[in-house]
Amino acid sequence: SATWNGIPLKHVSLITLTFQNSALILIMHYSRIMPPVNGQRYFASTAVFLNEVIKLGLSLTLALYDISNTAPPNTPATTLFSSLWATVFAGDSWKLAIPAMLYTLQNTLQYVAVSNLDAATFQVTYQLKILTTALFSVMMLGRTLSMRRWVSLVLLMLGIAIVQLPAEEEALDMSSLKDAQPKFYFPRTMEQLRDLGSTAAAQLVKRSATYEGIKEDVAEEHPQLNGSVGLMAVIAACVLSGLAGVYFEKVLKDSNASATVWVRNVQLSFYSLFPALFIGVLFKDGEEIAKTGFFAGYNWVVWTAITFQAMGGVVVALVVNYADNIAKNFATSISIILSFIASVFFFDMTISSNFLVGTAIVLFATYLYSSYDRRRSPPIHIAEYEKTTIE
User: Fold this and answer.
1) Could you give the angle at which helices 261-274 and 77-88 cross, rounded to 10 degrees?
2) Could you list the residue range(s) of the whole structural domain that residue 140 is in?
3) Pairing status of strand 3-4 against strand 7-8
4) Could you tell me the pTM of the whole model?
5) What is the tens place of the pLDDT at every residue in 316-365?
């Protein structure tokens, strides 16, 4: 019944989630394939770290607001901060460091995936996390799945496999080659020759007098998508998502302390800072960052992607509070369709029958998995504290 400017918050949260999902994937993908900023492409490790910093700030603000609503009027700010500190670090909250580390690694793999897959293919394939979450819930929580859900999981794998099939190459029409003439350009004047030499010299921006490193320069300027690397990154991210989510729920079930969704987000973001900083920024890219700088390769596109990713956890929490899981999956399905349409227009994505058929099967499997089942087991409540930023 909650409204915002007369509009039900259920509808507002679902529309926001749909837009956030679609826009985030597209912006992240473009940020990884766009021309380098000042000859430098940004490090994914710095983006993951800044994402956690921004998310921690947002979660702290909302958690403090939540506490202030339940506190007596005119409560000092120091008292509110003390209450929040005691709630965040109460009991066995340190156990959340394990799922926080898994989520951080998952976010890193997402950057690897969007760097090697187009936005629509990534988003469809990423629905594989439904399968991994279900399997880990059976193994770790002892849940039982109905026959309908097992069928939906099989359909999900089938649809994703069809999406990953290479498109059939068009048959080469030999008759079209009869009139084809090779096109060569021969400079006929000294001015044309000088222009041609100037153009060739301008292309060798970083290297001169040697061919060493030219492949690296070309790959930096024009990154090529590697479908195999992207697929492996998505599968690994889905496995980590399922494992972290189910482990997170197990910790919550075994814990006697109760906390709001905003406090849980604070805990996860806080413990995520350490692996993001020490493993990602310092250990993995520390040497290169020391040479080029922490914010090398950053522009408004990169900052937009980081901000959208940080807002993902907040949007998911709003959807869980004001809508339901079925509506959430419906919003995710709509975002997949929007990402597909946008990829065709903005990234010249090739429409293949494999992708259309596979996507349709994945959308149907998602609907079938989340649809009402009279004999279904108690619902999985992982989404209530889900930290995953891409749905």
Assistant:
1) 70
2) 3-148+225-323
3) antiparallel
4) 0.77
5) 766 766 665 556 666 777 888 888 888 888 877 777 888 888 888 888 88
